[in-house]
Design goal:
Blueprint: H1 2-24, E1 28-33, H2 41-56, E2 60-65, H3 68-77, E3 84-85, E4 88-89, H4 93-117, E5 122-126, E6 133-137, E7 146-151, H5 154-161, E8 165-169, E9 171-173, E10 179-181, H6 184-195, E11 199-204, E12 222-224, H7 225-233, H8 241-253, E13 258-263, H9 269-275, E14 282-285
Parallel strand pairs: 1-2, 1-11, 2-8, 5-8, 11-13, 12-14
Antiparallel strand pairs: 3-4, 6-7, 9-10, 13-14
Length: about 290
């Protein structure tokens, strides 16, 4: 009986997912993946399995990744101190070389390899490939940390049209050939806007936007841009959540339908958000 019940449950889940599969079939979903969700190998594999499944059912996934913990770990091994100003990594010439090595090399290619092992065609690129991310220096105090000037989305469209999952490390460049470390959430928002994504998913280390940051039961499941401004005025949106919510607003202003902030450490949170009634995290949308 147990096996029959389990199979019936599986069939029911697939049936319930059908309307959502139809909704997202042929649509672009941009997923920003980073932070602690990348440091657990088992969880990393689950995330890649979710992405492979979405691609298999016809969703066009663009994966934008960070790698802060890996960069910090490499800097420690090389005897270089990590320094932050306003939450941003100070990136001198030596550090940007390390960032490029870790992001465009180790992290990017390991994600591509995992997707390929799951039978999904993937191609790893950085913001320097195809002039994807044109940037400029953000603040001389930060060194080679960049602001995005322009997104040239052609290479991403080409990969999607040829049934690849683009796996993008967030490095930018300028016309002088300087390389910049770009905030991953910001890059994902700009890329999602340029490609006309139906959804942007920001995977974080918390459940989403909460009325009480220490109480997950106060999770705000739906929020408009006006709501976001009011919550910031009340200091409910504060600290590190401010730039993340701003990225949501930027993405929507650039044409993205809706943006989700979710806890990437929750097992199969991507599938919960896209293929179930319940969803996951906080959904940010434009005002009606």
């Amino acid at each position: 009986m147990t096996d029959e019940f389990t199979n019936a449950q599986r069939a029911s889940v697939l049936t319930q997912a059908l309307p959502y599969i139809q909704k997202y079939y042929g649509k672009v979903v941009v997923i920003k993946y980073g932070g602690n969700a990348m440091t657990d190998d088992k969880l990393k594999l689950e995330v890649m399995e979710d992405i492979a499944l979405l691609r298999l059912v016809g969703v066009k996934v663009v994966l934008v990744h960070g790698g802060g913990p890996e960069i910090s770990g490499m800097m420690t091994r090389l005897g270089k101190k990590t320094e932050f100003i306003d939450g941003l990594r100070v990136t001198d010439r030596e550090t940007v070389d390390i960032v490029q090595m870790v992001l465009a090399g180790k992290v990017n290619k390991s994600l591509v390899a995992m997707l390929e092992q799951l039978g999904t065609a993937a191609a790893g690129i950085s913001g320097m490939d195809g002039k994807l991310i044109e940037a400029e220096m953000r603040d001389e105090r930060l060194g080679y940390v960049g602001n995005i000037k322009k997104i040239n989305i052609g290479i991403v469209n080409d990969l999607l049209e040829n049934n690849y999952i683009p796996v993008i490390s967030t490095l930018g460049f300028d016309k002088s050939g300087n390389i910049y470390n770009i905030n991953g959430d910001t890059a994902a928002a700009y890329i999602a806007g340029a490609i006309g994504a139906k959804r942007l998913i920001l995977m974080t280390d918390i459940a989403g936007v909460m009325l009480d940051k220490d109480d997950p039961s106060t999770l705000i499941r739906n929020m408009t841009i006006s709501d976001a401004h009011k919550l910031r005025e009340k200091n409910i949106i504060s600290g590190g959540m401010i730039p993340k919510v701003q990225c949501c607003i930027d993405a929507i202003s650039k044409g993205v339908d809706k943006v989700i902030i979710m806890d990437g450490r929750v097992h199969h949170s991507i599938l919960m958000e896209l293929l179930t009634d319940e969803g996951a995290g906080t959904m940010v949308k434009r005002d009606v």
